[in-house]
């Protein structure tokens, strides 16, 4: 192919919201045999909404939600957004927070109303039998659960639902039909990730992966001789995008993810990956 025909192809792709950094990216993309997808914000919409609060014993649900919202008011995580919105909608009292800390991929902690608050996953809080019992039915349906402790004692769980993008199933079907190995990679809980994977027909799931381990997963696959494309949206995903043979960023995600990527899907629509594959094949056939 002439540089002209490559430019024409990438120009057409750009008009459809698929930004390709350069011709080398298309060449690398044609060789890819494994596609790794971040779950939240990539396979799913990434804008969770709160669907349930459950508490341990007789603890008040509004108390759990208000304390959770107090710490999440200082966090920028999409889960935080869902919790703060719901507490506001219910008109719950707000609390000033001191000693606020973010534990990347785990949750948040702080002190409010004289009480130590911790909100997050098992990596942050461990998991007590009563919290697991509350959480399991929701996880089995693919919903994300975060747990709250007050002064170290389990208080309750908050459940958020993050729907799969309407465009995801067809894109995964097309990519699997091409013979690509598809892997889901997520910081979310294994049971939740499994349920979402089953609904999408995916069998290879790597869950409970901390942000700084995501790149290691990609590097391991590459060491095994795979050619890996990684699609992600978050700050957490940037090192994994950079480690991949081809990094694919969602345009609905963070700027840092887009800077680490060879391909950016402006609309966050995974159908763009199918189109980019087709483009890479056309361009490479013309070159050879
Ligand atoms: P993902 O890989 O799905 O993008 P993250 O690495 O951002 O997820 O977070 C992984 C998990 O850590 C979340 O599913 C949640 O359980 C917990 N977590 C992270 N940040 C927060 C927060 N601000 N509040 C509550 N839980 C959090
Ligand atoms: Mg994410």
From TrEMBL:
<protein>
    <submittedName>
        <fullName>Cu+-exporting ATPase</fullName>
    </submittedName>
</protein>
<comment type="similarity">
    <text>Belongs to the cation transport ATPase (P-type) (TC 3.A.3) family. Type IB subfamily.</text>
</comment>
């Amino acid at each position: 192919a002439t540089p002209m025909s490559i430019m024409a192809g990438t120009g057409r792709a750009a008009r459809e919201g698929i930004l390709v950094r350069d011709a080398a990216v298309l060449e690398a993309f044609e060789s890819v045999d494994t596609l790794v997808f971040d779950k939240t914000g990539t396979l799913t919409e990434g804008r969770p909404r709160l669907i349930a609060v459950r508490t341990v014993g007789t603890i008040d649900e509004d108390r759990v939600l208000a304390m959770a919202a107090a710490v999440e008011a200082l966090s920028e995580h999409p889960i935080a957004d869902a919790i703060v919105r719901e507490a506001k909608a219910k008109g719950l009292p707000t609390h000033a927070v001191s000693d606020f800390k973010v534990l990347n991929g785990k949750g948040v902690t702080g002190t409010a109303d004289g009480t130590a608050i911790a909100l997050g996953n098992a990596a942050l809080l461990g998991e007590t039998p009563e919290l697991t019992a509350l959480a399991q039915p929701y996880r089995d349906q693919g919903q994300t659960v975060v747990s709250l402790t007050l002064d170290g004692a389990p208080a309750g769980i908050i459940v958020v639902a993050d729907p799969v993008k309407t465009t995801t199933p067809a894109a995964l079907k097309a990519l699997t039909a091409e013979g690509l190995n598809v892997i889901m990679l997520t910081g979310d809980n294994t049971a939740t990730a499994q349920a979402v994977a089953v609904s999408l027909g995916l069998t290879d799931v790597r869950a409970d992966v901390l942000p700084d381990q995501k790149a290691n997963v990609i590097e391991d696959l590459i060491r095994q001789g795979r050619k890996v494309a990684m699609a992600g949206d978050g700050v957490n995903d940037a090192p994994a995008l950079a480690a991949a043979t081809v990094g694919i960023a969602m345009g609905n995600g963070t700027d840092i993810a887009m800077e680490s990527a060879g391909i950016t899907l402006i609309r966050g629509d995974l159908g763009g990956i199918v189109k980019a594959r087709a483009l890479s094949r056309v361009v490479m056939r013309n070159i050879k």
